[in-house]
Design brief:
heterodimer; A: alpha/beta; seven-stranded parallel beta sheet; 18 strands; 28% strand; B: 248 residues; alpha/beta; nine-stranded mixed beta sheet; 7 helices
């Protein structure tokens, strides 16, 4: 009987819920191939493993060691590969940590790896975006052991099943130290939802000329996360991790506002799976105006705050809920 | 410091790619090929480190005879010499990493600088695979690189901010977008590059098996959306969002 190992993401000591996308993908693989799945949690604190025990895993494996207080690819991948010796497939959500870590596990297992998997066809065949999302490749992994990083926007988060999986401890593999964690510089306290989890995203582009006030106003009226185009981040107008695009964050919210964004291929690849896309741009010829579901030709400095005011009024009167 | 940089030949990122009708690949006729943008950033960072600390920058590429063009471009930017691994079959990230690892073991380097991903297969694997097979530390998605004697401090672009780690040499660093602005090759640089050494080797010379662990069996166009409705004003926008898209 084949088995799948899902690796949980734990960052700076806290469980990262993006893990649940990989859990959903493992459950899909189980439906298609019968492979039972377990979840492995590496942490300095054994209680972190409790976060994943309600999601249908055969068991939750906790590797608890002071060395796992901060994420580092070499020590983490050695322990994961040792545990994965008994498994056929390893799955990790393709966050920045998953992208860093999964190939190391593949290398140690001598396994073929498919990155950013968007669809599971069967136990060895997968579909994934390539060429910045301009093509979809069908790939076959030829090795017995397989490693997958899965695209969060392609798999909903797993829902709690109402039953608890047993938690077992597994040992950490000791690794000589060739690297050390120094510090984490967060990109800034924001009360807004994170881009990865948000139901609505409002992104600003070059059209803002660096003035994000209209973007913030619309985002806050909608309870939305704020994103940015590459041009904006390159200009230093927004933090790096706000960048939505193939080489930045890939998002797929229910509703995406592209405000003052031309719609370069790079950006489109990062948000094209959003359920509904709205473009606000004063240039009716911008590529985004033919890609979005709804487009309005307007000056963002007027339209975004006005739209926020109108939505606030509708919320106040109870006509809409957000 | 002796630095190995790899460059991959990819379609110009500004090109709109077309998929062959049989799904076997992309149409290459009339497409301009360039150094993968992330690899170009890696070349620039290697040159900056070499200029500040001395040493040598060696540029390597895997592919048919056409990839020598990209090696020459990196040599024109300032790299010392080139290695062309001549292959006549598709190479997956595991195969590329096996070749790079063998060259690394044969020659010995203090630092490996790669792009974080190639913009054709978007795999984001090769740097991590090389670090793993050499058992050296990795610092991927580099935003800033600071050489501190025998250690290298790297700021990494991660979800939610920048993570700083310190790695000992030798190490693998993969370049993210904002690490630097690559220089243009100067005319004297281009002239000089023509005379620089490019050594050609094959996987057989290196004794490396590159049979793929992952095979691409087909390419197709992504699904398209239903078309755009241009609305006249904000009230109409709110109305369609409520009645058609049903998002509120």
């Amino acid at each position: 009987m084949s088995r799948t190992l899902v690796v949980a993401e734990v960052y700076e000591g806290a469980f990262v819920s993006a893990t649940l996308h990989a859990v959903r993908a493992a459950a899909e693989l189980k439906d298609k191939s019968g492979a039972e799945f377990d979840i492995l949690v590496l942490s300095a604190d054994a209680s972190v493993a409790d976060n994943v025990k309600g999601y249908g895993a055969g068991k939750v494996l906790a590797a608890t060691d002071g060395a796992f207080g901060h994420y580092l690819a070499r020590p983490w991948s050695r322990t994961i590969a040792a545990v994965a010796a008994d498994y056929d497939t390893v799955m990790i959500t393709a966050t920045t940590m998953g992208k860093d870590l999964a190939p190391c596990v593949a290398g140690l297992l001598d396994a073929g790896m498919a990155s950013d998997v968007a669809e599971i066809i069967d136990a060895s065949t997968f579909r994934r975006p390539v060429y910045a999302g301009n093509a979809v490749a069908t790939v076959t992994i030829n090795t017995d052991k397989k490693v997958l990083s899965v695209r969060a926007t392609a798999f909903d988060k797993a829902e709690p099943t109402g039953a608890d999986s047993p938690v077992e401890s597994v040992s950490a593999t000791a690794v000589d130290s060739k690297e050390e964690y120094v510090e984490f510089e967060g990109s800034g306290g924001s009360d807004r939802p994170s881009l990865a989890d948000a139901n609505i995203v409002v992104s600003g582009g070059r059209g803002t000329k660096g003035d994000f006030e209209p973007i913030y106003k619309l985002a806050d009226s909608l309870g939305a996360a704020v994103g940015a185009s590459r041009a904006v981040v390159d200009a230093g107008w927004a933090p790096n991790d706000w960048q939505v695009g193939q080489t930045g964050k890939v998002v797929a919210p229910n509703l995406y506002f592209a405000v003052g964004i031309s719609g370069a291929i790079q950006h489109w690849a990062g948000m094209k799976d959003s359920k509904t896309i709205v473009a606000i741009n004063k240039d009716g010829e911008a590529p985004i105006m033919e890609l979005a579901d709804y487009a309005i030709v307007a000056d963002l400095f007027n339209a975004a705050p006005e739209l926020a005011d109108k939505l606030d009024a509708l919320k106040a009167s109870g006509d809409i809920s957000l | 410091m002796k630095i190995l940089v790899s460059v991959k030949r990819v379609p110009d990122p500004e090109t709109k790619i077309k998929i062959k009708p049989d799904g076997s690949g992309i149409v290459e006729d009339g497409v301009k090929f360039v150094i993968n943008p992330f690899d170009e950033i890696a070349v620039e960072e290697a040159l900056k480190i070499q200029e500040a600390n001395g040493g040598e920058v060696v540029v390597i590429s895997i592919g048919g005879p056409e990839v020598v063009e990209q090696i020459r471009t990196a040599l024109a930017m300032g790299a010392e010499r080139g290695i062309h691994i001549n292959v006549d079959q598709p190479v997956d990230p595991a195969g590329a990493a096996a070749l790079l690892t063998k060259v690394a073991q044969d020659e010995g380097f203090d630092l490996f600088l790669f792009g974080k991903q190639a913009i054709d297969d978007d795999a984001n694997q090769t740097g991590q695979l090389v670090a793993t097979s050499l058992d050296v530390p990795q610092a991927c998605f580099a935003y800033k690189v600071e050489v501190e004697g025998d250690a290298i401090k790297v700021g990494r672009e991660v979800d939610g901010g920048i993570e700083w780690i310190k790695v000992s040499k030798p190490a693998v660093i993969t370049a993210d977008l904002r690490l630097n602005e690559p220089r243009y090759a100067s005319l004297p640089g281009i002239m000089k590059a023509k005379r620089k050494e490019v050594k050609e080797v094959t996987p057989a010379d290196l004794g490396v098996d590159i049979s793929p662990k992952v095979t691409v069996t087909g390419l197709e166009a992504p699904p398209t959306r239903g078309g755009t409705k241009v609305v006249e004003d904000l009230d109409e926008l709110i109305s369609v969002l409520r009645t058609e898209a049903k998002v509120f």
